[in-house]
Amino acid sequence: MSALETVPPPAAADGADGADDAVLRTTDLTVEVSTEHGWVTIVDGVDLTVGRNEIVGLVGESGSGKTVTSLSVMGLLPKNARISRGTVDVMGSRISALKERQLADVRGVKAAMIFQEPRRCLNPAFTVGDQVAESLRRHRGWSRKRAMQHTVELFELVEIPDAARRVRQYPHEFSGGMCQRVMLAMALACDPMLLIADEPTTALDVTVQRQVLELIRRLQGELGLGVLLITHDLGVVAEMCDRVAVMYAGQVVEQGAADALFHDPSHPYTSALLQSMLEPTRRGEPLGFIPGVVPPPHEFPPTCRFQARCAHAVDEQCRRPVALRELSAHHLSRCERAGEIDLPGVTP
């Protein structure tokens, strides 16, 4: 094996166009964290695929495991967390088997990530141009002059006006939306094929949110990126995503094409999330909600994890572990009653 452990070329992404290769594939990804209760599983058996030229949404409430899943893909888990089972493959590299120094050669080159609150990700002591150019100098071995010239081009790509001047400015001279554009330029500097966007618009104004999302979608189309979009906003998912994976209590509970999942959900949790969306067509109707909260990881039950909050739970069927099963082509659900209960969806 070379320094970057390789795996066979990825097959076509599940649910994606058969001509598109998978840029990300997690198989049975399981993550544990060390707590006062011992080693506790917080992400459990996640199978996820992102293909070239597609956007896959990863949705769920806070505490469902979305961000931990993305940090696992990038090899950015905190020191008290570990991948205890499963694999993560990014563009032919088995991320889950690499050491930190090897991971540094993958981040930014094969996969890149942008976060919420972009201003906190930028160093206030350096110009934004120097921070973007640093990645080019590190991975490409370019001179400072050549890296800065390309940084100006990247700023133009992400629609930062007056790019040649603004590369010399500091983070405090940028708005939140412009800081996120800088982070996008940094993420795309070395031409990765996988972009992970973790709640990229949470800290932004509504109008700026739309601009950033439209920019991500444009860049995804122009560059042929695979994008994993992590969000709790189903409106964003409806507008942006080709496929969706819904997480609850560390597990994927439903996965499928975005249109099908919105129109005809097969898991009660997915349906309940959809009913909690604000929709103009439901003016005057009470807003849906899900009683209770996501249990802490050390209290995850061995049975259906949504049972305690589910209006459709039946003891004899739901009081046992539930596997993720295929209901139709590329539509998976982790519900014993899937197919026998009529769950309302929405029109995205």
UniProtKB/TrEMBL annotation:
**What GO biological process terms does the UniProt entry carry, in alphabetical order?**
peptide transport
What the entry lists under SUPFAM superfamilies is as follows:
P-loop containing nucleoside triphosphate hydrolases
Sorted UniProt keywords:
ATP-binding, Cell membrane, Membrane, Nucleotide-binding, Transport
Q: Which GO terms describe its cellular component?
A: plasma membrane
UniProt lists the family membership as follows: Belongs to the ABC transporter superfamily.
Q: Gene3D superfamilies, per this entry?
A: P-loop containing nucleotide triphosphate hydrolases
The molecular function terms in GO held by this entry are: ATP binding; ATP hydrolysis activity
Residues that span the membrane, as ranges? none
**Its membrane topology:** Peripheral membrane protein
Q: Could you list the residue ranges forming a coiled coil in this record?
A: none
**Where, subcellularly, is it found?**
Cell membrane
What the entry lists under Pfam families is as follows: ABC_tran, oligo_HPY
Q: What is this protein called?
A: ABC transporter ATP-binding protein
Q: Which domain of life is it from?
A: Bacteria
Taking every annotated instance into account, which residue ranges of this chain make up the domain ABC transporter? Answer: 24-274
